[in-house]
Amino acid sequence: MSARWASAVLALWAGASGAQEGELYASSQSLLLEDSRFVREAALDRLQQIRFAFREPPAEPGQQPLWTRAYGNWGSRDSDGAAARVEHDSGGLFIGADRKLNERWVAGVLGGYSRLDLRLDDRQADADIDSYHLAAYAAMRYYNQLGLKLGAAFSQQRLDSQRLGAHGSTDGYSVQVFTEAIYAMDYEEFTVEAFTNLAYVALRSDGLTEKGGATAQTIASADDHTTVATFGWRAVRGVPLASGKRLVARGSLGWRHAFGSTDVQRDSVSRLDGLASRSAGVPLSEDSLRLDLGLDYEVLPQVYAGLWYVGNFADAARDNGLSARLSLKY
User: Fold this and answer.
1) What is the pLDDT of residues 222-250, one digit of tens each?
2) Which of 33, 51, 193 shows the shortest CA–CA distance to 118?
3) Residue 116 contacts residue 131 (beta carbons within 8 Å)
């Protein structure tokens, strides 16, 4: 009898605390959709570096270009009244290779790993998500002023959760396609580009059954998708150094808009009493401001390194991140 009373008290306490049964998983989906940008940004930035403004010298016959990119990001999503505030941080590493196909086209592939950690304020709930990525990308430069980038990516995810003493694990995956159009205005050591990029992301999250007592839930599988577009300007300036090498300063400012519904929800059933519920997570940011500031440096004729800051700012969301890259030709 005492065990049953303890379970009942724990369940009542969980409800009084405002914890939604599937809220952790809904917020996880929302953040996975948001963080899908890191894969496509790795591809788009690589194409920017080798094909467009102040691109690296092309590989010589017999040389193979390789590159790697690491990033760290941290941020938060405010409560909207239905879902708790979320603190999150993530990091990852990508490795890629590409080659020139002809005078207009260049193409490549990348693979990578990333990890997302999130915590719900006042909910005693957190999750870790490990993701593995594979993508292909290509770009065309037409008459110098016009450019087009495009790509597609697949990501496999593994989620491990802790919530009010219960825990669970599940898998999922996402696919995305993306493109960016560029119009460049070139000067002697300065370039300004107007750009528009568009991405469609579809996410599939499998269901799971939590373990761990009165608060355990069975969470239903879910499918979500989003389409986002970013419009902005990019400026790049090359700075020749006394050593004969070159430093490249770059920055961009853009406005990002998410089309369609920004709500993310998960259905669940209590393992204690069989009651079904639908929980909302933090919504996707409908509109946000994007800021990039960075430096690239020619370490050796065959080796380039870069470091830059990335910020995303919305009414109820803030993200700050640092990325570093290294490219070489061997």
Assistant:
1) 999 999 999 999 999 988 888 778 889 99
2) 33
3) yes
